[in-house]
Fold these 2 entries.
Entry 1:
Amino acid sequence: MPRHFTRLASATAFLLLFAPVAAHAQQATTISGRVMTDGKAPLQGASVTVPTTGLGATTDAEGRYSFTVPTSRLRGPSSLTARRIGFVSRTVSIELTGSAITQDFTLTQSAAQLTGVVVTALSQQREKSTIATSQQEVSGDELNRTKTNSVVSALSGKVSGLQISQSGNMGGTSRIVIRGASSILGQNQPLFIVDGLPVSNQDYSTASASGGRDYGSAIQDINMDDVESVTVLKGPNAAALYGSRASNGAVVITTKTGRGWSRGTHISFTSRFTNDAPSVMPNYQNQYGQGFGGEFNYVDGAGGGTNDGADESWGPKMDGRTTGCVFKHDASGNPIVGQYDTSVGCDQFTGKAMPWMAHPDNVSGFFRSGSTVSNNLTVSQSFDQAAGRLSITRDDIKGIVPNTTLGRTTSALSANATVFEKLDVTGSLQYSQLAGMNRPENGYTEGNPFMTFTWFGRQVDVAALKRQYFNLNSPYGFADGSLYNWNDNYHRNPYWQFYDNAAPDTRDRIVAQVSANYTFTPWLTGLVRGGADNARNTTEEHFAKGNIDRASPAYNGGFTNNTGRLREMNFEGLLTARKTVSFADITANLGGNRRRNDSYNNAFSTNGILVEGIYNLANAGVTPTATNSEFHSAVNSTYGSVIATMKKHWTVEITGRNDWSSTLPKDNASYFYPSVNSSLILSDLFPWITSGQKVSYLKLRGGWARVGSDAGPYQLATVYNGSSRKFGSLALFTLADQSANAQLKPEQTIGSEGGIEAALFSDRVTFDGTYYSKISRNQVLALTTAPATGFSSTIINAGQISNRGFEGTLSARVLRSSTGVSWTSTFNYLRNRNKVDALAPGLAATRLSAQWSSEIQAREGEPYGVLFGYAFLRDSATHKILTANGLPLKDGTKRILGNVNPDWTGGWINEVRYRAWTLNALLDIRRGGQNFSVGNWFGTQSGVLANTLRGREVDWNNPGLVVDGIDKASGKQNTTTVIAEDYNHSLFGINEAGIYNTGFVKLREVQLGWEVPSRFANRVRAQSLNIAFVARNLHTWTDFPNYDPENAANAGNGGQGYDMGALPTLRSIGLNVTIVP
Amino acid sequence: MRHAKGLAVLLAPLVVAACQHDLTGLNSNPNSPTTAPAGPLFTQAVQSGIGRYYGSFQTLAMSELFAQHIAQIQYVEEDRGHIRPDVIDGLFTGSYTSELEDWQKVIDQGDAAKSPNTSGPARVMQSWELQMMTDIWGDIPYSEAFKGDVAGGALKPKYDAQKDIYYGLLKTVTDAAAAMKPGSTDLGLGTADPLYKGDLGKWQKFANSLHARMAMRLSKVDATKAAAELTAAFSGPGGTFTSNADNAMLAWPGDGIFDNPWAATFATRDDDRMSKTLIDTLVALNDPRLKVYAQPTKADPTKYAGLQNGLDNTTVAPFFNTTSRPGTVFYPGATSYGTFGTVAGKKTPSYLMTYSEVELLKAEAAERGLGGQTNAAGHYNAGVRASMLQWGLTDADADAYLARPGVAYVAGAAGLQQIGLQKWIALFTTGFEAWAEWRRTGNPASIKPGPKMYADVVGIPRRLTYPSQEQSVNSAALNDAISRMGTDTYLTHVWWDK
């Protein structure tokens, strides 16, 4: 034992210091060779191992590998396997005798990966043909073709069964849902696993349709450059062993390590640059300027002139006139509508009698050209019995909104060592630092640029606002220091808004883990693994003097400051037995896990400071508000599984897990959940299937699982909330609005699925499809209750959501010519139907979120997430709109207006290779689904969007328009002409007018890569050099007007179904260069 | 043997996981207690309820528009008859789940501790707000309310008929006044009472005064009950308000957190002007309160002018600088668009019920021969004088005003008109009561719908529509109430509004 201890200590020292353990000189066998594709291209990143020894190497850019088997492990006849995700693995027999072995491999690309070694639950590697559940793998290369900010956005379109919505926000959140939402009010995000341990995907976004900023989500801290592969476990079946949080599926990430490289030092450097621009811009009208009723005259921008408090565009026609923006008046002082008084100049904020003209680029000109620069350096060192890898990435993002930036540094250190023959240890440490500045606000607030330009005067010269803001002699505009702006009622100069109101944020994250794997006997191994995920996130918002919403005008500004700390710790032990008995290969696992989650939040704010620019508590003029809170929970688990594969083609897999959760009442805290899955390779059982040359592989699989889930902490007792604020000197306490439930039970999700995997026409076409059903019941719900109960909600166990659907991947090797041209095409598809089967007894609907009197609801008998709100009042016989005075009316009873769920989603990937050239293109498709577009709704009411020109083609109110409907009083077809302004204003309150389809097709990714021939690469002293042109979101096809239909304000459930003119996803175009010196 | 040791190490976590599964202790909330003292609950509820019913959306965009004390100069939807559904939802939901529930907890604690001096003020405050709510909507949940955390309590409370609610509230304030014991060892809420600093005698007066307000509301629909209850109110233990020192009012700290709600609104919004209906009346009567209630126009600092209610964007625009803003006492000094008022404006109190109102109630009772009251003129004069003094004017101002023709009291039907008019003037800022009294008395008759009202709200609202959310969470009870009341529109009359 002491000897082992010394080894362990030295291994630990290695892990900490990244220093090599002295390797003992031994007589050893060196195995080397080269791995090529069947297209005769070198294959980098393939792993070549001797499975019995656990030793191996990964190929370099030239496809070469080399490793040494020490004498102690020489065991005569053995096998050598070469494998790489995306290729069919190959195994040859070798004789480990001590003399050098040279072995080359040619691997055939599998159109889709139906066979080969894959990572699955518990991060164990298994042969895919024996896996009985639905899962799909993507290699790091595939994910990294174009630069994305997280593994989630990189997955978009590449895996079937997923719905991913990306954000246009700098560093923003992407929402991922696997096989539809299954929790009514809880999380619908999958569990993320990195190298065997769960990591947080905490949603830092505070964005919603009513405001807040999108600070991204925690999974973005995992550096994409460090990702070796990702496996998506789609159903509760696949994830049964991971426990509660995987009932929505699991995303299992394997990171790169130094293990398996040929001995020596390996360095690679990747540099990426993209230019970023909005992919979609609203279509504004450029004919009518600010004002109401055709009139405008600027005095103070706050109502003092004629309609100069208006932030709408129903003013005079922008025909370049310098006089005559208001009407003549009759003798008694009443305006003569339509007759402009040309003796009066057209006053604007820029001066008197200024030309009243359009500035068509006034919105697009506000945005700037953004960019993303990303550099990664990877160094790995490999020794006989140890290896290490260090990776550092720096990303610098310049946002499209002025004065917005985001910088991120991530580093990852991983090391592994064979301490002695039976003990392997590994350790890894990922540290990331993120610093954002002024992430734009979302939703209905002045900090969202599109909100500013939704309530806007179309004649406004934004360039003049910019010039004025940057005029150092008068930074705030007028001589008296007041702000210079087109409207002082509800808006600030947008440049002032983004430059003077700073909102810095920082995030530090450390994910660390160590594990030790001990081989007791050739068939029994034991693993202990421990890890911690720590994050600290601080967000600040500074409100300068004069901020219109957030600072008291009597003071010199205000600020908010929030700090959150999160920690998750896991400690796991796992015994694995692998045994082959006469006809069956059996693997059994028995494990236990302790998980502990802690979070702490501190926040303080004040809306009044004394000295300008000092955002410190000591400078508070108004008593600050302070809050602090902490949350703790723990889950202990034991679990086990038995997997038996009979005669290589029939696999049965049984799993069971029991959790004890701290968040449930003692009597309900323990819950058990089992799963059973089976797969059968029909083509092996019945060889005649393959005899026709049409079918080369056919596998059936099916399974059933039940997964339990606990509640959030502290939901068992109703509490009183205090406040740091005092009323004068009096303390305050209030009863919470939510009543608790001391009898909570665990939630339950029952999943079943059946799938088919087939390879046709000599593997040229492969198909992997699954039909699934997922039913979640006993949900922990905050049930919206009648407020007269004294509570707005109460916690109950109730409700059921079912999701049923089909997901499939069809992949074809369309072309593989002898000239070296190959073309593969893959289509991923998901058609999910979900339904809220039940809520609580007597409850028809519960509200998920609400905006402007509309709601997103879970409503019994309907899909999860219906839009509910006010519609046009209609005649019940003709369904035509009813009108009064020529204007539409609102139906006083709210009804279902739409459904936020898409009909189907898909991704179509095409890859063409020709010698050193590779061309990839990905189309991302979403069909069906609606949202309530507040941006369009208000953009219409404010007269800024191009669709508001109808009815004012001739002059501000001529010819007007006639609503197609029936006059409510007379019952006859409406013939009353109304002016466009009155018509569009009448839409206020009618949510139906803002409902649009959100379907789209996006050319999501294009990459043209060139592996520079080595004779050129060598001239820049590089072993290999890869140059790629990359583009994201090159084009969007959609019926959704003006804004980006894809909108992920945050990863939660509440942000779905609304947009308030969110920033569009970015069209990024640039270059990637990877050099291996 | 080595393997056995290894096994033991590996199995340890399994054993640990399986055995130490009692994690329940981790789930006790470290942030918030499950009990709270009555005092802070009461304070919170008081500032919440008064902040709500004197808040900008509930007064400046609702009751004060209906009462035509105020008119909107920008964003004029409400003045044209469309109240935002979200605001109606929020008013109903917030009232029940915040202050009314918190007062209920104070009542429960007081009853459990046999401390009527704790529960009494909470009962009075809860009754004050519930009366406003039934006046706003008609039938509302009452007898089955506040039982969401009581075993077997109603999760879908029924809507009680307004008559039953009034009868219940009258009994509650009667009992509360009788139960409270000034000067006893039961210290009740003590200094946590921001209205009267624990003076139970004043709470008795408030209970009786509120009793009179409720009773008078029934004068048309249920005259017998009104008469009996007025008598009971004026003879209740401790009596009614006898001076402005008794006024039920909340003095706002004015610390930037808890400011007078109008001052907080006017700091960043300039959407409101004085209504033409009120300013014309004040000008015609040469009322000295004009210069307190209103500011001169920006265009002409010598002139006071009101804005016609119910104009649209186009027709309202020319009046921006030619109509009066509310008085400087309602402004916080520096605002987003200039300086109005002084910092002291943030401390301007919100008046729940005043001595002036009590005297005017007595004047009406005397004029109608109710409640054992006599000397209508005396009460009328006292009521007008009290209002003058309340707003910082002097006895001399009151003397001169009361001598003016049109102000000087004349008995009979004209006297009732005068009482109503003076109450309407005195109730400036107390919009819900002013609106309710206009509905009861039709006084002043000068309140007329504006010229640009929306087509579906052709008159001054007689109530608010029910919150839309109730249709989702309590539809059966809601539909019962609607079928009792007729239709759920702004123009439906509540029970007492006959």
Entry 2:
Amino acid sequence: MEHATHSLGPILVEQARYLWLIPIFPLVGALVNVLFGWRFERSGNKRLVHLVAVGALWLSFLVAVAAFVQMLRLPAERRFLQDTLWNLFTAGRVTVDLAFALDPLSMMMTLVVTFIGALIHVFSIGYMWDDEAKAYWRFFTWLNLFVFSMLLLVMGDNFVVMFFGWEGVGLCSYGLISYYYTDREKAAAGMKAFVVNRFGDFGFIIGLFLLFWGLGGAWALSGRAGGPSYQPTAGMNAMAGAADAAASLALAPEVAVGGEHGAVAEHGAVAEHGAAAEHGAVAEHGAVAAAAAAAGATRIKVGPTLNFRELRDQVVIEKTGIAEHLKGQKVWGIALLALVGIFFFVGAMGKSAQLPLYVWLPDAMAGPTPVSALIHAATMVTAGVYMVARLNFVFALSPSAMGWVALIGILTAVFAASIGFFQYDIKKVLAYSTVSQLGFMFIGVGVGIYWAGAYHLLTHAFFKACLFLGSGSVILGCHHEQDMRKMGGLKKYMPITRWTYLIACWAIAGFPWASGFYSKDEILWKAFTSEHLALFGVATPWLGPAIYIAGIVAATGTSFYMFRSYFMTFTGEYRGGAGHGHEHGEDPHASVAAPHHADPHGHHDAHPAPDPAPAHAAHGHGAHGHTPHESPWTITLVLVVLAAGAVLVSFLGLPAAWTGHEPLLEHWLSPSIPAEIAFAHKPHSMEYLFQAIGVGAGAVGFFFAWLLYKDGRSTVPARLKERFIGFWTVVYNKYYVDELYDLVVIRPSLAFSRAMSWIDGHIIDALVNLTGTITRGFAGIDGWIDKFFVDGAVNAVATLTIEGGRSLRRIQTGRIQTYLYGALAGGLAVILLNFLIH
Amino acid sequence: MLNVGLQHFLVVGALLFSLGLLTVATRRNAVGVLMGVELILNGANVNFVAFNHYVTGGVSGQVFALFVIVLAAAEAAVGLAIVLAIFQTFRSIDVRHADTMRE
Amino acid sequence: MARKLFTWVVMAALVVIFVGVIGAQVMRGAVLPADAGLGPLTIRDVLFYFFAALTVGGAGGVAFSRNILYSALGLLAALMGAGSLYVFLSADFLAITQLLVYIGGVLVLILFAVMLTNRITEVNISNASLGLGGGAALLVATVPVLVFVATVTPWAANASPGLAPTTREIGNAFLTRWLLPFELASLVLLATLIGAVVIARKELKADEPDPAAAR
């Protein structure tokens, strides 16, 4: 199960020219629906809308399955499918292509996204058919666009495509949360999600820049990197000019490495060739060349890159020396890799709703339930986990970064779980549960058990989607009621929903035979046995066990509040039917007082009729009592599939202690996870013990929930609440975090923007006006100068001429005598001159 | 020097000429101007005759003086006719008034 | 009134002096021919000075007199004096011609003109632009120069040429040597005659503006 580091070679790429089809189907579906969907709806062909959307998703899933099948056929070390479409841009040595790549990790994600996405699309048919917003087409458009973006995110073979998808899912999340945009609160919830995500994205970008820069070594040319064959030179800098991809490639320094495992020994000759090696002078490697050629000597491009494969190759293969190079770099005294890890994790914090950027997720419940299921349970929020898992080799180089990830993960898990205790809105409970479970995933990738984090992602996708869709079914059945206090006793009205919900609760609580147990326990076990964690550069061996203990507490809490929701919803007597009143305040789903149709589910199929017929006829507004009913088959079928999946997926992660060989998923994911993390070896008995403790924690939670909430008869909750009302209020109001943010972040921002606006209006405009005034002044002066001096000069010339003429004219008196005088004077002058000269 | 010789006649001629010039230059009356012109001509005549007598023999100088007299007469006639015409035009024979040619 | 008296007194004094001088000479038994001397002066010189004074005095009268009529009379004196001087210079025909033409023709014409125009304007010597100062300057400028030239230049002069009648020679000269100018002069006179008539004729246009009234 451990791989020898030195035997890792570069990724071998298999071309698969059809991968672009996977994201293109949902994109086409979105385009068709955005252009023609409203027409379909108006012309009575509403079905076309979902046919297009759902069909696109299933097609996409089929292609993904085909890729999966192809991958299965390949040997494990060759499982890398690549499809390059075209070159997006080339900048210096860096080329960025629009390209898709599937390695085992992204394959898993793709399957999850397309499969669960398709299921949720089917669910949405039933759920959104009679939706009050009357924009069936818009919903499916956004949904398809979202899946497209998510696929870009997971399938992108470089940071740019991934980031495009990253932003795209943020956008679609906004579009879907604010789906009921006419309601101000819901629109505000969408904005909140988007803005908080932006904080995260900023961190992501900073991390990316730091990594890029670190690879290039702009300021790290001070010493020789530790690797034997690699020497940073100016050629490492990405800023060398290149006009196109080919030229760029030609500029890239490369390091020759052995093609397969174990070819290290022959590369001793390479050590002397330092800089020359960068130009891939294979011919110098004499004896090496023959062996290398036989093994398929490959050259690895080193230096700044945005491509995941290239990044992984450089960092993982020690021969390039990049890993040592990165480890040695510091930014203002802090290790570069720690910073990179932390900044990337900030991005994950935003996208995956970790502390402190989780605040958008509960508010995101304002969107329709399928949205909550798809985006905020199964896919978008897992993008952060995916990203950390994808960059496992970078994180693995920095124990500090890993420690931070794990720490934030556990803090989030506990924090969110505590809030979930007291919420009444069923979707809110599930939202906080999601945040908490995401925390667990981050614990997993934080301590270094990447496959377990991904596995928890997978299991969570199934059972959380099932839970959300189940709650959607419940909400629908209770006529858009979301407050659990108005529910109860639904098990007799909605059995299918009840059983699937129960199975999903079983899974999330971590009981064996449902997949949550395997993933969660693996994470916690590995957290306990981790040896690789540090904080602020200081090794913290206590962190692992601390995480474990807190994790157990969180697991207990998870079990408790999930079963609380189950008991409150499905057991006891139905408390609803007195109208649609529900709590305001934290519940944004306020627009419930919308017209219901006589037959809200009247579409193509007959209801499975667990509802008594009179209940059907008694549909109407809430003035008279109505009874909940089971949801149509499009909904319940999906629930069943998901619940089944939640159970079946457990086979992928059966622990080695049980089966004797590594879990299937771990084996599957191992090519994607080259990072080597040290875990303490503990005997299997200890592992069984810890698993039992985990189950016990779940049982304790279940027990208390059962005690307090079964059938809703117990008065203990009410009495406890009264007793600890202060504490209860704080937790119920989410520890006032939103208010804190409002005070600390939002108000200053608004004040700042007002100040800026004032500056712009008063100072900058004043400056501009001043400039205008000064210009006018200068113009005035110029005009004055022109008028008085220039014109004056011109006029003076004219005046001079006129006055000169006027004066000279006076000689012409018209009198003969004057002329006579003149003649005489002239004659006399001549005579005198003549006389004097002689 | 008191004995009369050529110079004396020349001096007389010069004086006549100067006074005639003065008259022409300063008189406001147009007829006065003409009188001045006669004086000038006479001064010239005296010079001619004096030179004829003292320097050149023969009668050339006198013939010339005769021509001068003739032309002076003609000129006086025409001149006075012009004065009359000016008087008709300007209603005055003050030479200062006949300055329509002035600029 | 005082001026008149003064003038008369001066003239009387001059006459008295003249008569006295001549009388004295006669009393002394001087011979009256012109060459008889009066000390260094001969009668001829005295007479010359007298007629020269008459000429120049007359010219001065023309130049400086305020009254145009007095100027005309001064002109008369100047012309007569000039004629007398011609006699001294053996130009007898010329002297008579001067008398007949100049005094008898031109001067009379001028007098006619004076009379015709006399009442219209008042004549006085001061010219607005130049005035007495200008006149004096002119005299100062011309007289010394001319006198200087006249006296200093060494003329090639005969000391005392004889006196002889000239009529015959002038007549000959006109018809031989100076024939062309003689004929041309007659043409000129003809032209003058016509021209003077034409110029002095009154304009026939009725609406001509009156320049004197416009001032």
